[in-house]
Amino acid sequence: MKFTHLDESGNARMVDVTAKETTIRSATASGFVRCPPAVIEALKADEVPKGDALAVARIAGIQGAKKCAELLPLAHVIGVHGAVVDFDAGDEGVGIRATVRTADRTGVEMEALTAVSVAALTLVDMFKGIDKGIEIENVRLEEKAGGKSGTWRRGN
């Protein structure tokens, strides 16, 4: 088996995408932050001690997408041309959904996953003063579009 991120000697390398065609690409990821009832009550009453948790987490998620290549050693530095992070606060926690778009030579799946992960971590940080029993669950890719492999959707 040939590994794309190893050279002939078995050393890690960044894959050279110079010759690849620039195309419009997008990816959507999701995750869930499971919260005890006291946290949900504070969130819905706008009484989180650290402030507007969803606003801070939204900005953190967008920033996470833009900083992905700094966190993942073999990820390419690409232009993040659009990033949206949305939340759905329910009785058991907060759902997170991030969509990232680019016109580049490689996809933005890792950027979308990083956006969700950083937004989730930010919510944990914003809520930890209320309750330490918060859990991050099910961070996963939901769909990607563009590039050589085309469109992929979870469940297809």
Q: Main sheet?
A: 5 strands, antiparallel
The helicity comes to: 25-40%
CATH class: Alpha Beta
Briefly note the CATH topology name: Alpha-Beta Plaits
In total, how many domains does the architecture comprise?
Answer: 1
For the largest sheet, list the strands in their spatial order.
2-3-1-4-5
- Unreliable runs, pLDDT <50, ≥5 residues? none
Task: Report the β-strand fraction as a percent range.
Answer: 25-35%
Tell me the CATH architecture.
2-Layer Sandwich
Mass-distribution shape:
elongated
CATH superfamily: Molybdopterin cofactor biosynthesis C (MoaC) domain
Number of strands: 5
**Helix/sheet category:** alpha+beta
Q: Which sequence of SSEs, written as H and E, runs from N to C? A: EHHHEEHEE
| Helical segment count | 4
Mean pLDDT: 94
Q: Mind telling me the C-alpha Rg? A: 18 Å
Cα end-to-end separation: 26 Å
Describe the structure.
The chain is of the alpha+beta class. The protein has a single domain (23-145), classed as 2-Layer Sandwich (Alpha-Beta Plaits), CATH 3.30.70.640. Helix content is 29%, strand content 29%. It contains four helices and five strands. It has helices at 37-44, 53-66, 68-71, 109-127, and strands spanning 23-34, 82-89, 93-104, 135-145, 152-153. Strands 2-3-1-4-5 form a five-stranded antiparallel β-sheet. Helix 2 (53-66) runs antiparallel to helix 4. It starts with 22 loop residues before the first strand and ends with a strand. The mean pLDDT is 94.
